[in-house]
Amino acid sequence: MKIEIKNISFGHNLGEKILENFNYSIPEGVFGILGQSGCGKSTLLRIVGGLLRPDEGDVLINGESVWKNTIIKKKKMSKKIGMVFQGGALFDFLNVEGNLKFAMDSTGVKKEEWDSKIEKILESVGLDNVENIRKRFVSQLSGGQARRVGLARTLVTSPEIMLFDEPTTGLDPQRSRSIIEIIKSSLSNSKISIIVSHDIAFISEVCTQAILIENGVVGATVDNKNLNKIINSKKIDYKDENLRKLSKFIKGLPT
Amino acid sequence: MKRLFLNIGKSIAEQSSDLGRGAFRNLGSFVSSIWEGLHGPYKFYFSEFVYFSSSSGVNAFGIVAITSAVAGVTSSYLIAEEVRRAGVGAEFMGGGVTQMLVTQLVPILVGLVVAGRTGSAITASIGTMKITEQIEALKSISTDPIQFLFFPRLIGLMVALPCLTILGCVMGNFAGYFAAERVLHLSWSTWTFSILDLFEIEKLFHSIYKSVIFGAIITIVSFYQGWTVHQSSEELSRRIQIGVVGSMTFILIANLIMTVLVF
């Protein structure tokens, strides 16, 4: 499986481009996207996930177009992709169980599997007292619990491609750690996972490859080995431009 | 077709001011979402439709009954006063008041009341779902948000509004009779025979057709305002106002067009 991002351009306002002629090919594995706030990381994730139409360009998943395909094929393709949102994005008109059942119903999971899957998935995302939690509405959940349920809602549909939009932002270190552990254990279920995060340690821990978005294009690319090397070193002036840019970005210097 | 809409939107947007650009972009995105919603594996969310039509209908029952009754009493009282002064025309009271209520007053009043009550609720709920990323979450689990959120509300209100209009006509008529009875001591039979003599039943059907269109106007305008909210709750409150005022304005314009050109 492979995701090809071809000539993607996007701007929230006309005349202003967040992504411009963006090209990249994402292979199987866990892929990280880094960049400063507002550089277009989450926008790119939404375009790849079929949630946000680009102004120009296309995304190909295994050679099949996401944006230039027929509506029927596009809808079929969306079943392969699951997205974990920053705040959980749970449906507030349903309780926890309702959220999971709705997701399973929409993605074609057999009805007889629902109950066992709910039980299993809620336990796997580290929620205690599952019997009590599954009847709660979104307003009765803490921020951390809502994220876990949001993660469970995506995992329960077993997508081939998983997209994570800043899954640890706004959580205290303890909760953040536990979410990272859950994500790590779930990554093997999908063929491609794309993680957008400001947490460089998290990206270096789980991703086989990462890119830095800069001025609407790929500013630098790095593999896991080099990313760990940059994080653990004070050096900035690498000969390789990719490493130099990433090193400066990680150390908070202008790239 | 979808491409055509997008291209038209894009080319107009390029020629327009910043404000116009945003509006055309929003409109293009809304139209293309509706187009997508009409395609592919179509699922009708019947429980959503039942929930929405019953909640918007039943919950508006009280305010519609009161508004229609007040309209009935007021119009009947004013006409009855004139009839009493002139000393003629009491036998036409029932038919006249009913005609006025059924053809104009009740459908417009019900439309305006529902635009304020249900229309604002539609904008608020859709806008909140947009801000909290629930609409994107729907897409991410392969649920077409238009099929799930828009069509049940559209059809729900197109069913609920005629029901409320019929209820309003009945309430207005009874209330009108009581006012006429107080001023002119008119009997129930005189009132009823006047209605049977003068009132044309097709006027009631015209009123129902109108309210179906008003239901569609309220849903489309209010849903559009919620759908195009971007990121702030302050924007949402502004959109709710625009949605209500827009729905009311379009209802009045549509009523004028239908009264003059169609019915």
What does this structure look like?
The complex is a heterodimer of chains A (255) and B (263). Chain A has helices spanning 41-48, 71-77, 96-106, 114-124, 130-133, 143-155, 173-186, 200-206, 224-231, 241-250, and strands at 3-10, 19-26, 29-35, 56-61, 64-65, 81-84, 161-165, 192-196, 209-214, 217-223. Chain A has 255 residues and is α/β, with parallel strands linked by helices. Chain A has one domain: Rossmann fold. Chain A has a 6-stranded mixed β-sheet, sandwiched between helices. Chain A has a 4-stranded antiparallel β-sheet with strand order 2-1-4-5, with helices on one face. In chain A, helix 4 (114-124) crosses helix 6 (143-155), helix 6 (143-155) runs parallel beside helix 7 and helix 9 packs across helix 10. The longest helix of chain A is centred in the C-terminal third of the chain and has 14 residues, at 173-186. Chain B has 2 domains: 1-40, no CATH class; 46-262, no CATH class. Chain B has helices spanning 2-15, 18-37, 46-86, 93-131, 134-140, 145-184, 188-198, 201-227, 233-262. The longest helix of chain B has 41 residues, at 46-86. Chain B is elongated, with a radius of gyration of 22 Å. The model of chain B has no long low-confidence stretch (mean pLDDT 89). Classes of the chains: A alpha/beta (255), B mainly alpha (263). Chains A and B meet through helix 2, strand 6, helix 3 and helix 6 of A and helix 1, helix 2 and helix 5 of B.
Structural key phrases:
heterodimer, A: 255 residues, alpha/beta, Rossmann fold, 6-stranded mixed beta sheet, 4-stranded antiparallel beta sheet, 10 helices, 10 strands, 36% helix, globular, B: 263 residues, mainly alpha, 2 domains, 9 helices, elongated
